[in-house]
Design brief:
Layout (H helix, E strand, L loop, with lengths): L26 H11 L14 E6 L6 H4 L8 E5 L7 H13 L4 E7 L9 H12 L11 H7 L13 H17 L9 E7 L6 E4 L2
Helix pairs in contact: 4-5
Bound molecules: zinc ion (ZN).
The site of zinc ion (ZN) has 8 residues, from loops.
Length: 208
Amino acid sequence: MSDGSTDAHGKHQVGRTESLPAAPFDFEAANREYARENQARPGDLTRRRSQTAIITCVDSRCSPEHFFQLPENETICLRNGGGRTADMGTLRSLTLIQLTSELKEVMVIHHKNCGALFYTEEWVREQIAKSVTNDSQDHYPLVAPAWVNSVPWLGFNVRKGETERERLERSVQEDVVFLRNHPLLKPTVRVTGWYYNLSTGIVELVEC
Ligand SMILES: [Zn+2]
């Protein structure tokens, strides 16, 4: 399909030339049900929150709202690939949170079987370069490699002989230390590190 593409709901996608596959989950229906059941929420804007921000991975299996059973409006969750703290978008959001609310603690959580364990910056570069030269419909435009070089991919460092758990605990420690020393995080904000075991559902404190 080259023009007039539609999304899963039959609406035109401005600026896109390819169509997307239909989503198997009915987001609109679920949202309407949610809105019906949550009509009156007087505490929305005034209720005291936990004053904690969580930084974790975008992996859909790693959802703090679920594994901490968080009530709505309780905690700010910042998610990126791997749950890394040196991520510019995360630093930007953390800074804005401190300027607009009273942040007391940041929890850094990395998780078992994280996809970010398995890539390197070189691998990302190679995949994009390969796709640009690919003739199939599913390719990136020619300018994509220039963008690849301007994005920090923040892959996990690999040390020979290390187990996955050891590597993740080390990455949590690195990310906690990075934040504790970062000039854009106030020294009064507590930073803690955690490991989430997808297999057991348990979140464990990592000594940092
Ligand atoms: Zn992950």
